[in-house]
Design a protein that fits this description.
By secondary structure, the chain is an alpha+beta fold. The chain has a single domain, classed as Roll (Pnp Oxidase, Chain A), CATH 2.30.110.10. The protein is 21% helix and 33% strand. The longest helix has 15 residues. Bound molecules: flavin-adenine dinucleotide. The site of flavin-adenine dinucleotide (FAD) has 12 residues, from strand 3, strand 5 and helix 2.
């Protein structure tokens, strides 16, 4: 089922690239793990903060220090707008004007609420951890009561959401196809580098499965 477009999620600029399909929105949220959270921080005014997230069904989870201004402000029920962006390629045209970018992005609006129940909080943290590095939660020591207390976890319903996607090559003006200028797409993606062992690894500890198979 699609998300219902609202006045603030209606894609007006190049609307054919807009998409309200739930599966499309979820797939983009699942492919990325950093979002940018916009909110008004009281007298300080508008601010946009980058942060990690996880998704479970139609819920987005954020977490961090219980002292975080962003999390404390959102926990008060302040309206937020959250953007997630994946850059897939540079679109190089024959003219400066027609250059573009291939991307998949999502914009959400809503209010977050603190997750206070201990079991639900642990589960939300598992969701965030496994979203970033699938399987990591099962490999590591779970949080203690003290660590849980020091962590603020927020849930935000994914209700007001839009996706916008651009794919394909450049679209030049007809007369520019005669120009001797290279045009096409330079694909871009995030790839994992070679893992670096921590200096204090216990003898015989091999690479964790979640690292070896990072987001494959
Ligand atoms: C990729 C990424 C993932 C992150 N994931 C998390 C996460 O999951 N949980 C979490 O709690 N934090 C995360 N952070 C850190 C986060 O961006 C904030 O710095 C942190 O949450 C503190 O928020 P705050 O509202 O208390 O910041 P404050 O310290 O109150 O912010 C005050 C001012 O400091 C500056 N500032 C704050 N953060 C940044 C920043 N990241 N870059 C540049 N200037 C900044 C801004 O000018 C801001 O207005 C992440 C950062 C990055 C880049």
């Amino acid at each position: 089922m699609d998300y219902q477009p609202t006045p603030r999620t209606t894609v007006r600029r190049l609307p054919k690239r807009g998409d309200y399909d739930r599966a499309t929105v979820h797939a983009i949220l699942d492919a990325a793990f950093v979002c940018h959270v916009g909110f008004v921080a009281g007298d300080a005014g508008p601010v946009v903060i980058p942060t990690l997230y996880g998704r479970s069904g139609d819920t987005l989870y954020l977490h961090g220090s219980a002292a975080s201004r962003m999390l404390k402000t959102l926990a008060e029920g302040v309206e937020a707008s959250i953007a997630v962006t994946l850059v897939d390629g540079l679109v190089m045209a024959r003219s400066a004007f027609h250059h573009s970018i291939n991307y998949r992005s999502v914009v959400l609006f809503g209010k977050a609420a603190p997750v206070t129940d201990e079991e639900a909080k642990n589960e939300a943290l598992r969701v965030i951890s496994d979203h970033i590095s699938p399987g990591r939660w099962a490999e590591v020591r779970p949080p203690t009561q003290r660590e849980l207390k020091a962590t603020l976890v927020l849930s935000m319903p994914i209700e007001e959401a839009s996706a916008k996607v651009r794919t394909g090559g450049p679209v030049d003006d007809e007369e520019d196809y005669a120009l001797p200028v290279w045009a096409g797409v330079l694909p871009l993606r995030t790839i994992a580098g070679t893992p670096v062992d921590d200096g204090r690894l216990q003898a015989g500890v091999g690479l964790a499965k979640s690292v070896a198979e990072w987001r494959r």
